[in-house]
Amino acid sequence: MDELRIALRFVHFAAVIALFGEFAFLLCVARPALRETVETMANERLALQRRLVRAASWCLALVFGSGVLWLAAQAASVSGMTFVRALNRETLGAVLAETLFGHVWIVRLALAAALSAALLFLGRAADRQDSRTLGACALLAGGLLGSLAWAGHAVGEQGTDRIIHLSADAVHLIAAGAWLGALPPLAFVLARARRAASKEALDFAARATRRFSRLGVASVGALVLTGVANAWYTLGSVPALFGTDYGRLLLAKLLLFGAMVTLAAINRLRLTPRLSSVSGECSAELALPALRRLERNAIAETALGLAVLGIVGTLGITIPALHVQTVWPFPYTLDWDAVEASGGIPAAAFVAALVAGALVVSSLRARKRKMTAAGVALLLGAVAVSAWLLTVPAYPTTYFRSPVRFSAASIARGAPLYAQHCATCHGALGYGDGPAAISLPVRPANLTGHLFHHREGNLLWWLQHGIAGTPMPGFGDRINEDRLWDVLNFLRAQAEAEEGKTMNASVEPWRAIVAPDSTFQIGGQPQGSLVQQRGHRVILLVFYTLPASLARLGALTESRSELERLGVRVIAVPMQEAEAIPRGAPAIYAAMLAEPDSRIVAAYAVYWRTASGAPSAPEHVEFLVDRQGYLRARWMPGLESGWNSIPELLHQAEVLNQEKPHTPAPDRHMH
Amino acid sequence: MKAAANIVALLAALLSAPEAHAHAFLDRAAPAVGSTVRGPPAEVKLWFTQELEPAFSTVRVLDKNGKQVDRLDKLVDRSDATLLRVSLPPLAPGTYRVMWRVLSVDTHVTEGDFTFEVAP
């Protein structure tokens, strides 16, 4: 089934590109070139137009056939039926009428029908100069080609990204058509000129080649720019080029593209001048071999282009690299972070590279060979030094991104694993001072320091496989990957809690201490989550015990309208399940009482540590969470009077309200 | 040096992943994946990373015996095409499995499942 879809996509892309290329060639290359040459070339124009109608008709037939089969394959894919069984009116009708793909296909089939009519007309009137019909045909073919963007990954984006990705994709397709699609008619023109070998024919071939060359340069420029834009959306990162199926396919495509551009550069820089160096006075001895090579190169480029389209057919049904883990295939990688540790050397290498570049450019102009050699040597040296500086060891998981959200549930799963497997050496609070630490030859790492300067993928690898040369063992055989991500979420919470241990009842300048997301449920209302409140409300997250907190909850109840006015939502969670205040309790506002949830309590207990250590079990703690999801202030009644005064609490909420918004808190760890 | 580091950081930011999506993946759900709710929820809501094709996107809620218990009224929200929802009759306490299969507008089918628990 996949093979069928790939083959159909390949045939369809190739046919539409060839179709558009025929018109692009005639309008942008052949006709302007003919206009510049002498009158006797009238036959050439006729021959070209006849060829165009014939080739375009074949292409169009292929476009129709493969388009209809693609529709059927799509129907089979979405309905989960086999290809043959999906070929019924109901399924095909539903795809056409009710999906975006179907709507796009209706438009494209209509474009193809209009183009057939125009081609019929053009075929009957082949001896007339019919620029208008030709122009219309080119537009229709361009529409058929560009609209393929709406059948790809680009429509999956939303908002501005969707517009950018769709436009980039459409322009990419058109540019591919204008270059790759125009190669077969170019080869045709070159072959005719070579056979005729007349002065006029050679002159025409030279002019056509020059024009084609310009069209090619413009197309390659557009392909590169739009290709980068597309890769930004589907690839996501450079390592994905090597570590995912999608990336490796794209890499192969880039190599083939590079080969095509190399051939094109030879054509432009070496062969085309031979046709026209004696412009006007074409010498047949010089021009004919060049023509033959140009023709061969055009055919070779077409073959490479078809291979590219084979990859394009496969890419369309491959999950974009952005959505799969990048499995790094090499033992080393280049990492910019390594630069910071190496002082002024990278700057020196950078300056050396600049000097070398300038040397090479100026010496090439002045044709001084020794200077060029020196420049190239310096450049290579600078590259080598930079590469050596940037090279760091890497693991298969180096570029993994955590699939597990930074949430209270995950931290609560990680916490007992940490206590069981890690705390003996790394200490209960992560300072590297566990009871077993003294007996170890290497002091265990303090996990509350710079831990998350490391890539999370590397951290995962060390948890799975240990660290060579240290007593750190691997846990991959005992704890599965998802649970290790939980441990990493716990470690992140621990490191951020350490940074926030000085947090008090006054809102301080922003620090990246993310409030872990959590679901909560209030009364019979549907389950809510902290993340949903982002952008709307400041949250006062209250952890309470009875009877100690009763008076406090009463005070919050009394001031609920002032809190409401300032956009503060109170969510009160019991520390112990058994101590939850029953609904309908007098003097307590029911809409702030969340159902007991041990996970949110366990996760936020990580954030109870203060500058003087971790309180064993505080009776009451309150956090202010800002609108972007960060923990901003904390009140522990035993330590300071703080929010005992409700006006003080309201004042802190006001401070948050007057702040400029910062970047929303990431759900996952970002490197 | 600082400037060079900044340029490098900028390049690194440009080369790193944007928050964009192709193929629809489950972003979040209510009741949340793997969570416990007090009292029966009135419906299940699934938010995806991409807009869905209503005609070919389905969700079913099964009880522990594999019997479908939802009201067979799955629909893609009118105002938010990334939200798939299905309503539920009052459920007895227990574990329920949500199975989804969706077609995103970029023509790809994805599927998955998760459980939630209804506490008494």
Account of the protein in words:
The complex is a heterodimer of chains A (671) and B (120). By secondary structure, chain A is mainly α. Chain A has helices at residues 2-36, 42-79, 89-98, 100-124, 131-146, 160-179, 183-196, 199-234, 240-243, 245-276, 284-315, 337-340, 345-366, 369-390, 408-421, 423-426, 456-465, 481-499, 530-533, 550-558, 560-565, 598-605, 646-658, and strands spanning 332-334, 391-393, 519-520, 528-529, 538-544, 568-574, 621-625, 631-635. In chain A, the strands form three sheets. In chain A, strands 6-5-7-8 form a four-stranded mixed beta sheet. Chain A has a two-stranded antiparallel ribbon with strand order 1-2. In chain A, strands 3-4 form a two-stranded antiparallel ribbon. Chain B is built from one helix and eight strands; from the N terminus they run αββββββββ. Chain B has one helix at residues 2-15; strands at residues 26-30, 36-38, 43-48, 58-62, 75-76, 83-87, 94-103, 109-119. In chain B, a hairpin with a 5-residue loop joins strand 7 and strand 8 (109-119). Residues 1-22 of chain B have low confidence and may be disordered.
Helix-strand layout with pairing:
The complex is a heterodimer of chains A (671) and B (120).
Chain A: H1 2-36, H2 42-79, H3 89-98, H4 100-124, H5 131-146, H6 160-179, H7 183-196, H8 199-234, H9 240-243, H10 245-276, H11 284-315, E1 332-334, H12 337-340, H13 345-366, H14 369-390, E2 391-393, H15 408-421, H16 423-426, H17 456-465, H18 481-499, E3 519-520, E4 528-529, H19 530-533, E5 538-544, H20 550-558, H21 560-565, E6 568-574, H22 598-605, E7 621-625, E8 631-635, H23 646-658
Parallel strand pairs in A: 5-6
Antiparallel strand pairs in A: 1-2, 3-4, 5-7, 7-8
Chain B: H1 2-15, E1 26-30, E2 36-38, E3 43-48, E4 58-62, E5 75-76, E6 83-87, E7 94-103, E8 109-119
Parallel strand pairs in B: 2-8
Antiparallel strand pairs in B: 1-3, 3-6, 4-7, 5-6, 7-8
